[in-house]
Amino acid sequence: DVKVTQSSRYLVKRTGEKVFLECVQDMDHENMFWYRQDPGLGLRLIYFSYDVKMKEKGDIPEGYSVSREKKERFSLILESASTNQTSMYLCASSLGAGRGTQYFGPGTRLLVL
Amino acid sequence: KQEVTQIPAALSVPEGENLVLNCSFTDSAIYNLQWFRQDPGKGLTSLLLIQSSQREQTSGRLNASLDKSSGRSTLYIAASQPGDSATYLCAVTVSGGSYIPTFGRGTSLIVHP
């Protein structure tokens, strides 16, 4: 079974803190994604990576950066957390070029105070 | 740009009913379409993946169909149970480009005993 794990289920941070969200997949997938999910707005893509050290901006990259140093790990970084980044963050992975199923992690619920 | 719409946004049915969830998309040049289930506060779980060349996929009480010409997919749930209560999302991947799925906002289903 494909497994996508996220470093935390719940996280509480202060405004201005640097926040790291980590995602690891164990199926050698090329593609990895970071989304945020908010009530009424659905799932929005923050960043996407199709290979190690490769990244592409999604629909809402402002205030975020990402790192993919190893194929199995994709990190989302909030350089200076703000209250409007309070959200549910979901990581996903899939085979390259849209092939196959997209697998999601359990999500990290982030609260920024 | 691909747009994915799911109607209705919410649905409440008594246990035992057969029901249909709808997903429509604007760009028919799709690569695949995926149906997901999301329980409250959790990540997305893949239910069915339909490739562009397929007309339907089945898994247990679930059957998903795809009609590219009309830009529609339906998810049929037979003999619904309270455990089916969740939000159901569809995601469409278009051929070419970056193969990033476009998600609908989901249908929130409640099956009451």
Q: Main interface pair?
A: A-B, 25 and 23 residues
Helix content of chain A: under 10%
Largest sheet entry of chain B = 6 strands, mixed
Shape descriptor of chain B reads globular
Number of helices of chain A: 0
Nearest-angstrom radius of gyration of chain B? 14 Å
Order of helices and strands of chain A: EEEEEEEEEEE
Residues in β-strands, percent of chain B: over 45%
Unreliable stretches of chain B (pLDDT < 50, length at least 5) are: none
What is the quaternary state of this protein?
heterodimer
Structural class of chain A: mainly beta
Overall residue-averaged pLDDT value of chain A: 94
Low-confidence segments of chain A, given as residue ranges, are none
Q: Mean of the pLDDT scores of chain B?
A: 94
* Count of helical regions of chain B: 0
Q: Give the class of chain B from helix and strand content and strand pairing.
A: mainly beta
Task: Give a topology summary.
The complex is a heterodimer of chains A (113) and B (113).
Chain A: E1 4-6, E2 10-13, E3 19-25, E4 31-38, E5 42-49, E6 56-57, E7 64-70, E8 73-78, E9 87-94, E10 103-104, E11 108-112
Parallel strand pairs in A: 2-11
Antiparallel strand pairs in A: 1-3, 3-8, 4-5, 4-9, 5-6, 7-8, 9-10, 9-11
Chain B: E1 4-7, E2 10-14, E3 19-25, E4 30-38, E5 44-51, E6 56-59, E7 62-67, E8 72-77, E9 86-94, E10 102-103, E11 107-112
Parallel strand pairs in B: 2-11
Antiparallel strand pairs in B: 1-3, 3-8, 4-5, 4-9, 6-7, 7-8, 9-10, 9-11
